[in-house]
Amino acid sequence: QVIPGHEARSVESLCWAAGDRLFGAGLGGDITEYDLSGLSAARGVDGGGGPIWSMVANSTGTQLAIGCEDGSVKIFHVVPGGIQFERNLDRRKGRVLCLSWRPSDTHIVAGSIDFFRVIDVASGQTVQRIMVNHQVEKAKRECVVWAIAFLSGGTVVSADSFGRVQFWDWERGTLAESHTVSTSAALSLAVSEKEDSIIVGTSTGATYQLQLLPVKLGGQEKRWVRTKPFQFHSHDVRAVAHSPTALISGGLDAQLVIRPLMEKMQKKGYDAVLRKFTFPHRRLVSCARKARMLLFQFSQYLELWRLGSTEETGKDGEVLPLCQMPEHLLQLKSKGPEHIYCSCVSPCGTWVGYSTASRFQLYRVRCDGDGVSLRKV
């Protein structure tokens, strides 16, 4: 299923709440609930703190916490038919880039630039503020805390722009362990349900797994150990998820990769195979075969091109010299903020149609000698 995009609705974070209700938030500053049967935005509420960088639901799915540009963390209550603003938590300077609830829902940890803080939900006050850069001698560049997780034992895990995954004792404010997983930024992290495995996504396209293993065989003391990296992406890995049987990562290369954890697999089958899904699954280029034209679909406009031609012949796969170059015939801009959902050009090349979530447009194209005219039908 695809929920069509919208100019004013960038999606920075998504989360499920109250069972099967899907909420999204982004730099437009609104919290949007999606209609999963109509595949559209059902309703939106202004977050009241400028662009929203992060949003997470508590363990019961009854409350949403959002982290805003103005440094505020706000709590919204999920009610039938929407959400209601509940209260502001302690506000500090610096945009809130990532959030995580403690599994017991008593505290929220909020990551910003150069520091993160732990907030007591009942009082709304910051009870701990930890600088992530104090142990780096004269750090000249700022350290962005891109992802954060609160474990049930009280440990806070942070992933930052220096490529580090760090484990903190938040009550004492001390660093317990630090792992430099990458020379570039660590952008995302996800923790398994049993909290014995963590997946980290980086800006080089690599994903890493950290596992909590005993130091000595059969011993009680355990340490986090980094396993080998997996290079399945070519760009930033902005989103990761940890299922009971697989590690899932999504990158800016528009690929979703599911890597099974082989030790969790009982038998061979579809679930035990590495799966890569490339997006989009819909056709963004359509061909007018008779007229030798191609129509390219972008989010807010269409482009119509006439293919070049050659007088040479050759084998399949060979590049032939062109006697006529490809020609850009027209660019058709969509009016309104909705993104184009689908488009098509007729085989004869004289009709172009496209639709958004709410309307359909049909145009007549005429090519007279050198000029191209377009008439809305």
Automatic annotation (TrEMBL):
Signal peptide: none annotated. GO terms for biological process: maturation of SSU-rRNA from tricistronic rRNA transcript (SSU-rRNA, 5.8S rRNA, LSU-rRNA). One of its GO terms (molecular function) is RNA binding. Gene3D superfamilies: YVTN repeat-like/Quinoprotein amine dehydrogenase. It comes from Phainopepla nitens (Phainopepla). This is UTP4 protein. It comes from the Eukaryota. GO terms for cellular component: 90S preribosome; small-subunit processome; t-UTP complex. PANTHER family: U3 SMALL NUCLEOLAR RNA-ASSOCIATED PROTEIN 4 HOMOLOG. The lineage of its organism: Eukaryota, Metazoa, Chordata, Craniata, Vertebrata. It holds the Pfam family WD40.
